[in-house]
Design brief:
- By secondary structure, the chain is mostly helical.
- The protein is 71% helix and 0% strand.
- The protein is built from 3 helices and no strands.
């Protein structure tokens, strides 16, 4: 798993489909879904898939936030 698309495909396996038109909102929603999967016991904090997905989502959220801040200037 290396990209946001890979994370979306992984979440799709668990019934989550992202239909948000705003990319940053979609990323935040995917982060929340990942936390719910952790809390429901599907993932453990030490699972490689969980850790990788969390890092990818954090990175993508930072990139999108920086883009949106740059557009405002």
């Amino acid at each position: 798993m290396k990209t946001l698309f890979d994370v979306q495909e992984m979440l799709k396996k668990y019934g989550f489909v992202n239909l948000m038109s705003n990319r940053l909102d979609g990323i935040v929603l995917m982060q929340q879904e990942l936390v719910q999967l952790l809390e429901s016991g599907i993932f453990q904090k030490s699972d490689k898939d969980y850790l990788t997905a969390a890092l990818i989502l954090k990175r993508e959220a930072r990139i999108e936030s920086e883009k949106q801040e740059g557009d405002k200037i």
